[in-house]
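Exercise 3.2. Students should predict the tertiary structure of the chain below and write it as structure tokens, then compare their answer with the key that follows.

Predict this chain's 3D structure.
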Amino acid sequence: MTRPSYFEPLKRSYRNWLRKKSRILPTELPLPFFHANDIDSVIGYFSEFANDQQASQSDLPGSVGGTCYLCNQEVDFSIVRLKDGETVSWRETLTCPKCRLINRWRSCLHVFEEVCKPTVDDRIYLTETLSPVYQNLASRFPLLKSSEYLPNAEFGEFTQVHGVWIRNEDVANLGFSDASMEIVLCFDVLEHVADYRSALREFYRILNSGGQLVISVPFSYQHETLVRARLDDEGNVNHLVEPCYHGDPLSDQGVLSFYDFGMELMDDMREAGFQECFVLCSYSRKWGYLNNNVIFVARKLRSSLKNAA
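Answer key:
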């Protein structure tokens, strides 16, 4: 006989309570991840790998051998060759030939798997759809939801883009219900959101008690966040430094980056309500993370939507 549907919320509440109780603490992170308390510890950690990075930049083969965490196989990570004299952007290359994920995607999903400990019953929100990250997660997590930002379409509705039906969402004003997710994944999106603090509050709102947020962003290697541009009251962009545009699957022109985030992003997370926030650093030849990877993790440990005292 099928159990009444009211058992599912009870089971979910128990799983989330158990997740909070048995969560991996920052001081217990698995390798290759390092917990950084402040900007000095971030810089100190990566300084240990400076010589290896310089050697990597000076000798650029077509690929680098290592192990893909997601594929659980030894592979040759391919490197995008640049013009002579240009520095390789390691975050955007080292592509696994199996899953097609680049360095930063693989390291973020490594954190997601090892630190968040997701299950197939978790409701997960990913702030992108048109990427191999979505394809990887959708094949393994049936309750995954994702979106893109389509300013000329109706938010909260599905729109067909490149033959794919995509949910349209503004992360600063999400259409999901309160406490409707266990995990939020936001990879190199927040820097394109002028009002990113509202996005953090929205992530907190839609997460259940025990929920976790994983964020990757361009990092300033300072405590302070570098504000690259602002919107005025009329919505016009005011550039404060040289404009920076990132690749965009929806536009050949790219998308403007408003921020290079510093460690103070953790202060913003706490202000949004998150009770536990920390930074993970990683550099590993074994896993093909030949870059100063910095990932932010935040946890909602209370049921109240109010900020922590």
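Discussion points: Residues 7-21 form the longest helix (15 residues). Helices lie at 7-21, 39-47, 50-58, 103-116, 132-138, 196-206, 265-272.
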